[in-house]
Amino acid sequence: MIEAINPTTGKRIAAYDEMPAAEVSRAVARAHEAFLSWRGTSFAHRAGLMRRAGAILRANARDYGRLMAEEMGKPIKDGAAEANKSALGCDYYAEHAEQFLAPEIVPTEARKSLIAFQPLGVILAVMPWNFPFWQVFRAAAPGLMAGNAMVLKHASNVPGCALAIEKVFSEAGFPAGLFRTLLIGSKAVDAVIEHPLVRGVTLTGSTAAGRAVAAKAGAMLKKTVLELGGSDAYVILDDADVTLAAAVSTKGRIVNSGQSCIAAKRFIVTDKLRRPFEDEFVKRMSAVKMGDPLDEANEVGPQARHDLRDELHRQVQDSIAKGAQCLLGGAIPNNAGAFYPPTVLTGVRPGMPAYDEELFGPVAAIIPVKDEEAAIAAANDSAFGLGGAIITRDLARAEKLAIERIESGTVFINDAVRSDPRLPFGGVKD
What we know:
seven-stranded mixed sheet, 43% helix, 14 helices, Aldehyde Dehydrogenase, Chain A, domain 1, alpha/beta, Aldehyde Dehydrogenase, Chain A, domain 2, globular, single chain
């Protein structure tokens, strides 16, 4: 059984029977049949349909925002923005796919040598609940524009979003079966990867999930693209504008109620600025409004599930027990719903969950250091290397540190990290 539970109320929204293995196999076979025709279509034809998908997303952005709020607790204005960003992704790949995949002439001693790009076939997308529209479209838009088909195994707590996305592609006029949602649990993923007509797998999720999918795909010799966890470090140097640093840090920490791989999580500040930064940061975090995600005024909704909220609280309490100081929050509210308040810990050091683990919720870990060298060492002292930021007035120095010293796939300067279809997205380490 696949269930959608509203994390604000705890009430069940909908329930679906899990697709039996035979139906899953038929869906993959039908996707492959659709692919055999789709791969021969022109980029112009594909682009027309993809732009229609973008238009549908924009026209219904508010409704999709409500759906996200109800299934996983995203503030409705953020959900509507996510639908619009998904539309931007559709438009971007509609415009650029042909250019990106144009044959490349390579000079050799032969009369003519070229590299041509061909679609693989049916791609399995295993997607997370935290950005239930964007994560799917940023895989599906380029994948379909390249001539592939796709089957989606979405997170089990957002089945309504999964079915709504399938409907977007159907209403846009894509061939029947080319994009199909599979209502299955995680235990059924291995069998889909093993299906002979599935040619590649993309996953966004935890490091543990990534390892499991990569191992199975490797055993089956199938292509993979993985985007896993993150514990983004924001390095605040001696010359930073404290007001700006606190504003950027707050923005980066509360995005999606703190449930983002590229949310700001570790705040590394030199002793010189520690006290003024803590004061300003706590002031801004305490002003963040938490509540019903359907209320436009609220910036933080509930965590997506109660078990996730409880695990976050355990990490906070364990860190405090090991010596971290709680400057704000740190207690589960008495009201209904999977809420966790904006929380600020300081004095965080190695051996504490707030230092060593990913905090997937609105909890900030301040790590004091003596100087810039120690700040860089602390930023890199993590199993993760997805995103990060540097706050400083010296832009040239920051650019040099970002390129040469910070171990991260993406580094922003004086702003919070975010993804953009125009830029590469990925990381290093785990």
